[in-house]
Amino acid sequence: MVEVDEDDALAPELAEIDEVLARTERLFDGREVAAPRKREQEVSVGELVIRDPDWDEGERIAEWLDLAKKVDRLPVTLAAALLWDAWEHLEPLQRQHWLGQVLVSDFLRSRGKIRSHLLAFAVGLREIPRERRRARDRTTRLIAFLDAM
């Protein structure tokens, strides 16, 4: 164990690391049994962590990736609009909604467009009325997305 001055600013963090190392050593030696971790599936309102146990991220991502293969033959801007729209409506990930923008940006880059096209697209979307961007009709949404470009 490392001796630390009481005035050291990192003393609490180092003490915590020492505790983790000691516990790990006890676990490896068999002197302590690790408690099984429970997967939390409830709604935590206090921290606003909401998880749906029936949410099938794998299936939703597979559906989005399948669409990405299909739109590869389309013009780049139309394909990007379709991918963006699909991400917005499929919602493949419960907690990482922002990842859709990164993936669409990477799609644009892979097709020879620069990433700033997506920035212009995102900024342009702010100018489009919400009713058009979130319309129930997919055609209206796609036209709004293309107008944003």
TrEMBL record:
Residues 49-149 form the DUF1612 domain. Pfam families: DUF1612 (PF07756). InterPro entries: DUF1612. This is Uncharacterized protein DUF1612. It comes from Aquamicrobium defluvii.
